[in-house]
Specification:
The chain folds into 2 domains: about 60 residues, Roll (SH3 type barrels); about 35 residues, no CATH class. The protein is built from no helices and 10 strands. Bound molecules: zinc ion.
């Protein structure tokens, strides 16, 4: 997967097109991602032991990774992921500005 957790991405296709957010989870086996604040839908649930009142919960739906593009932290453009090297490490780079797409380690 070219998209990783905590990447800043834009939705480029589908009904959430134009929205942006941070990748919250990735599902490599089905090539889907969950983006914070995107594709949120409400679901009413019956009371359970965990939520005794039941009610409405918000669910963050998975989005196909093919509908998502990364936003380059260097040039702030929606870009494609290329690959480059930083020392011995393979890193993802922006195809527009050649800047690294890897997040700084905090
Ligand atoms: Zn760039």
């Amino acid at each position: 997967m070219k998209i990783k957790k905590n990447d800043n991405v834009a939705v480029i296709a589908g009904k959430d097109r134009g929205k942006t957010g941070l990748v919250e989870r990735v599902f490599p086996t089905d090539s889907k991602v969950v983006i914070t604040g995107v594709a949120v839908y409400k679901k009413s649930v019956k009371p359970t032991r965990r939520a005794p009142k039941g009610g409405i919960i918000e669910i963050n739906a998975k989005i196909a990774v093919s509908n998502v593009a990364i936003i380059c932290p260097s040039c702030s453009k929606i870009t494609k992921v290329g690959y480059g090297k930083s020392g011995d490490k393979k890193i993802r780079i922006c195809k527009k500005c050649q800047g690294s797409l890897e997040l700084e380690k905090k």
